[in-house]
Design brief:
4 copies of one chain form a homotetramer.
Chain A (H helix, E strand, L loop, with lengths): L9 H11 L13 H4 L7 E6 L4 E5 L5 E2 L4 H13 L20 H5 L10 H14 L3 H13 L5 E2 L1 H9 L2 H12 L7 H12 L1 E3 L1 H8 L17 H14 L5 H7 L4 E3 L4 E6 L3 E6 L10 H14 L5
Antiparallel strand pairs in A: 1-2, 1-8, 3-5, 4-5, 6-7, 7-8
């Protein structure tokens, strides 16, 4: 309630990263594709971006990593800009209570994914983008380059190809939605975009910058209106209830900020009115979220008392 | 972020209640027990309690109604005081993604309810209370009387008996937890408490007062520490992700406050740092939350810009 | 098609039992109640009863054991006599595709159990019997004593009490059916009968005799019409598709006779037109059917070519 | 048991077909593809083929129709010849208890379909055939032409294309199996074969002839050994427990013969030791089996007392 910005210093973050090192080795890097399994697990970074664009960082905060499902946050932003409330025809806004890649619920719900942050929901979002954009991946990159003020951002093609080669379950979800009439474009085309989105590489600093407009009623640190204040609030609400798959409740309980995680080990979180933050470390806990990133964010909100609840 | 208390006046609330009247007739009162079905559906009330105890109210804000599942919020408070973090052995903290009385998930999860706000979770909480309290219902009433500063609060025995007579599904859930070793006390005894908790009658004013400590780091308006700031934050987080059953995501999206609903038509919500609010109107939407109470809270947060996200 | 009765001799069965001994130790006796776990696992028996009442037997064929779910076959017989086709209101006739004590399907199917041989279905049958019989357990015993021509048959009260004490899951299923309006009598009363039925003790010879009317168009070996030819055919069809829980397909594939198993280690099977057979050995395979009884019946039908298919 | 072949005459079948006409209009032809929806619903045919090749027939018994899922019976025959018992790695033999195209169970069972007669199972069979055959559809046609002694049999390409165009759910199932490592060949290639198999057109007479080896220990009416007696028995057992999707229990209860249905309106059934029969009429009941074909087979087994149970 009475957040003291002066407490959130580089020194503070550096201490957190140092303490976090003792947790190294307790998780397990994503291993479903070789390109992710090969990463050095002993990396920890964190960056905070205040609403005015000021950055505070520690550790490997400038090392690019695979953003993976964090891309779902930005494709949602793109889609909401294009479709407004029409977007929610065929895509829900409820926590799923199931694994991020569950088919069970998708069938029970007649092909309507529970929310845009589980795989099926993100595939539906990519399908909608495909219908209105000429080159979805390029245009997502353009948005991210602008938001992060980093023209060098790109997708790792080797990772993208590897994702595609291991994408049978995503194909199954897309075809099931198609069977229910909730998917318009060719599955292969959408999977291609989806896998390239996941393969985009960004650093903690990039991601903190790119998401700070969510803490600032939709205004980027450079002053551009990305979304309306209302849309921003609602995206944060979605992150709060659905952003960490079936650990969203736990994340709300322990961290208390809206957030979005990726199997690359990154987690973005937002403290509305003040700052965004991105933590990164490749080792994952059993539900697929970065063990150390979660711990860093828990400590940050606990010590600074910045839970929104 | 910059909440102007001066905007939240009796006049403001009265206008909301007047506007809400045009929605009367669009929902349906709970009808699974005669005692609830018999209520006059054309009632609307709302009360706000600020952290200092000031009350603003409109409509039928002083009419007592059946709190039903809102009792789950207060039994959780009781249980957390008694058990601290030990409470979470055998009770989850995740949104369920299923109806409030689903057996499917309870079996899949080996008798561990997803959270304390679905029926199975609340039954587990009542089981834990039964193990440590001599007279759980009486002691819950004592807590509520103190929090609401209203010694007249009581349970409606006719409603409680009616609930018990229609309690086969709750019995099924309790026995299933027992089969998994996650329920210690006799099922009948716990159901008796549970049904009496649901049958407690309180007004919007009572409930707003009783829950304002959740907006004030655990301190009641009379200055008593009910829970720690930390516990309070976490209860709010649980309400935010799980408080409205399988419409919790939608409530976060549209209202943006932690809340807890009951089939009696009441919804309690909390704006941390500032106030608690209780809206009431008996007609329910298809997922079982009060249609008009939801609308009132949407309008309130929208017009005053008090979403936490 | 051209069954040679002369091949089914005591010598033939004795050889089977001898060969089966090498499988001892590969399964595991039921251990959910102490009374069953305490049994000597090294017992093997088999008895065949021809339609004319002639018995061929080998091994421990006269040792009484707990019939457990085989009782479901005889309560179905009782209920079909009392209710005729009306019995099928609220009870299905399809294989379940789930474990014998699954709650998931029972909820999905709105409280209608898939068939009378899974626990929920047998509980529903007992509920129907309770509505029309003054003393269901006593009357089941009377039926079995007559069919087996053995007035000494009785239920083991220690086993019945032990079942009742571990009966929370059965209570959960009964209450769930009650919640759906598909259960009329007090749950406790029906569970009491159900557990006593399971605790009845019979030998292979008793069970082969008691079920031979199912091989003989409904006529017992003493010439009494127990059911019509038509009802008999249909009960056999139910055993063929549902009699061995979620191993019914495998049993049809490997054994090829309608059958009913129990966790006491017994399996009854019927070769229509010719004989009934009961095999017994306490050690169970992972799906809960007697490992050695299954093997004995496989060998019997394989060597004598008596699959019905 | 004492089947009188002399009772199964053309006159007998003609009477059945006449009686069945009063049921016309009570069902609904398959409408998921235009090519099937366009069929004249007022057609009824039945043909019996005795083990010696003699045919008795009535109604439209020589009109070719789309065999649809009846093809699953013959691809299983092909696959069993090629793989023997190895076939069952990755394919179950249990009734599913779910709709024929359920994804839920396929995920729960880690990509292993319950049996070869539900869609997922048949797709897995086609995948196995693809691995060992140069031209699966052509080779299936060759087998059917030989078995039915009808060189003119062919697949309807318009139907096949239409199936492919509506094949998203089948694609979803194939990709889900691939995700679990239980599908080797390219999904598109296997779907192509699968859809052409379904689009093969045969008459009641063709199908009765083609399946009579299942009633004759694997020997075709022309004397060729198609499968061993043992394999034949087991295929019949699979039809008996799984052949009519989630109405298999009902079919066993009412008809009492192993059978396999298709949404084209045909049902093949086998009376081991004596004859095969195929009934056809396009209108389906709610579970997707021909309403009149089911009734014809019920009447046939009832009047001739030829239930196997």
């Amino acid at each position: 309630m009475t957040f003291k910005r002066s407490a959130l210093t580089e020194h503070f973050l550096t201490d957190l990263v140092e303490e976090a090192k003792q947790l190294l080795g307790q998780g397990k890097t994503a291993d479903y594709i070789p390109a992710l399994a090969a990463i050095d697990p002993n990396q920890i970074g964190i960056a905070v971006c205040f609403n005015d664009g000021d950055i505070v960082q520690a550790g490997a905060a400038q090392t690019p990593f695979s953003i993976q499902s964090i891309s779902k946050l930005f494709t949602l932003v793109q889609a909401l800009k294009l479709y407004q409330d029409e977007l929610w025809q065929g895509i829900g806004r409820e926590p799923s209570g199931h694994r991020f890649n569950s088919m069970v619920q998708l069938e029970t719900d007649h092909g309507v994914p529970r929310n845009p942050f589980i795989n099926a929901g993100a595939l539906a979002i990519c399908d909608r983008l495909q219908s209105r954009l000429s080159a979805p991946t390029f245009q997502l990159l353009e948005l991210l380059r602008k938001l992060a003020d980093n023209p060098a951002l790109h997708a790792n093609n080797q990772v993208a190809r590897s994702e595609l080669a291991h994408g049978s379950r995503n194909a199954a979800m897309a075809y099931l939605m198609k069977a229910f009439g909730n998917f318009s474009n060719p599955v292969e085309q959408v999977l291609h975009s989806y896998c390239h989105h996941c393969a985009i590489e960004m650093s903690c600093v990039d991601l903190a910058k790119a998401s700070v407009f969510l803490a600032n009623k939709g205004i980027s640190f450079s002053g551009e209106a990305i979304l309306s204040a209302d849309q921003t609030t609602r995206i944060n609400a979605l992150m709060a209830t659905c952003g960490l798959y079936d650990a969203s409740g736990e994340f709300a309980y322990e961290v208390g900020l809206p957030g979005k995680s990726g199997v690359g080990g990154g987690i973005v979180a937002v403290y509305p009115g003040h700052f965004s933050v991105c933590a990164w470390s490749p080792e994952l806990n059993p539900v697929g979220n970065s063990l150390i990133s979660t711990w860093l964010l828990e400590q940050l909100t606990d010590r600074l008392e910045v839970s929104i609840y």
